Amino acid sequence: MKVIICNDYDQISKEAYKVVSEVFKMEKPIVGFATGSSPIGLYKELISAYKSGELDFSSLTTFNLDEYVGLDKSHVQSYNYFMMSNLFDHVNVNRENVHIPSGTGDLDSFCRLYDHEIEKKGGIDLQILGIGRNGHIGFNEPGVPFESRTHIVNLDADTIEANSRFFDSIDDVPTKAVTMGIRTIMNAKSIVLIANGEQKAQAIYNTIYGPVTTECPSSILQLHPDLTLIVDKEAASLLPQQK
Ligand code: F6R
To answer: Is the beta carbon of 66 within 6 A of some atom in ligand 1?
Structure first.
């Protein structure tokens, strides 16, 4: 595991860009994308690299981590809408190669097929992750088995509260989501996890030093052979090297 501690969010985004841009050197890269506030700066870096001619997205295949159940892709808080407006609408990715879980329709069949689709393409080369205050990755909340594949989850009260900042009211936050499972995430060949802010400090400490337990889903990442954690000083504030 590699841990990069940055001075601020801008530096996090630039360090994450260095990791992500490396994978674009592959002939047909397959990247797993996350939503939420953490990767927005990285996505801005990717867009400006496309605009300056540094990165070409035409051979990229993408798989997103998750989507809220019940939100259509046209809903402004859907993760589909998020990906289009924060990245995919601004780069030359082939839409046929973009995969984002659906939050509506036949979710059971979707879940059954998503891991197969990833495997059929050859597996994810690099998975981008954020992390919840409770250590969730994707929407795998505490207690989800480490061997889980893409499935439907009930969101924790803490996650609903944290994400209510994006909605008019907490009652509008969906209570369920479709998410890649922990095994799906661990199958990625490499992983980069981005976290900023003091509210992520305990989760980051547990990710690196906690026991490997489903009570903190991100703790399983200790067993991943190619993990880079990119955090700011606040998110790193409980780490021994910062004390
Ligand atoms: C999003 C996702 C979540 C977020 C996490 C952190 O696709 O899978 O695990 O990464 O909830 O969200 P932010 O970045 O908004 O703090």
So the answer is: yes
In a domain, 145, yes or no: yes
pLDDT digits (tens, 9 = 90+) for 48-83: 999 999 999 999 999 999 999 999 999 999 999 999
In a domain, 79, yes or no: yes
Q: How many domains does the chain have?
A: 1
Distance CA 180, CA 63 (A): 9
**CB 62 near ligand 1, within 6 Å:** no
Q: Which of 125, 136, 140, 156 is catalytic?
A: 136
For the CA of 138, the closest atom of ligand 1 is 8
C-alpha closest to that of 63 among 2, 7, 129, 118: 118
User: 35 C-alpha to center of ligand 1: Å?
Assistant: 6
Residues of the chain with pLDDT under 50: none
Task: Return the axis-axis angle of helices 40-51 and 9-23, rounded to nearest 10°.
Answer: 60
